């Protein structure tokens, strides 16, 4: 038969385990939220992507180091929006929204890249 003296240490251990688990979960969630906000802001005066390679994940990796063309074509627009193959208008809108969330000038992003992202959307939706 189990006495009350034996139950309290088990209950206390379970409560401590639950508290530590919940606290650890909250710490990890807050760290991931914080990490998502720690992106580099690309200055507006950088026109060649070979200068931007140290800025990390602000643009698709296969686009870095290539630079922009004088007039944007469909292939370059797809690279900027990180699209591949045939794209529907909905795909283009979602990709545009995703890239603008990362690079919007009102939230510390680059005005230059914001213009290029908008131009890419216009080229693909024509």
Global geometry: rod-shaped
State the distance separating the first and last CA atoms: 79 Å
Mean pLDDT: 78
Annotation, overall tally of beta strands: 0
Helix content: 55-70%
Q: What is the CA-based Rg, rounded?
A: 24 Å
**Strand fraction band?**
under 5%
Number of helices in the DSSP assignment: 4
Summarize the structure.
The chain is mainly alpha-helical and 126 residues long.
Description:
The protein has 126 residues and is an all-alpha fold. It is built from four helices and no strands.
Secondary structure: elements and pairs:
Elements: H1 4-37, H2 74-80, H3 89-103, H4 111-125
Which descriptors apply to this entry?
rod-shaped, mainly alpha, 126 residues, 4 helices
């Amino acid at each position: 038969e189990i006495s009350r003296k034996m139950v309290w240490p088990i209950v206390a251990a379970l409560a401590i385990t639950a508290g530590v688990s919940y606290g650890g979960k909250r710490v990890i969630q807050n760290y991931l939220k914080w990490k998502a906000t720690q992106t580099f802001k690309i200055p507006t005066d950088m026109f060649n992507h070979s200068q931007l390679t140290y800025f990390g994940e602000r643009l698709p990796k296969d686009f870095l180091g290539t630079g922009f063309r004088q007039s944007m074509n469909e292939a370059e627009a797809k690279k900027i929006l990180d699209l591949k193959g045939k794209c529907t208008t909905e795909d283009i809108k979602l990709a545009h929204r995703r890239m603008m969330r990362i690079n919007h000038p009102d939230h510390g992003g680059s005005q230059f890249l914001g213009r290029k992202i908008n131009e890419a959307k216009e080229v693909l939706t024509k």
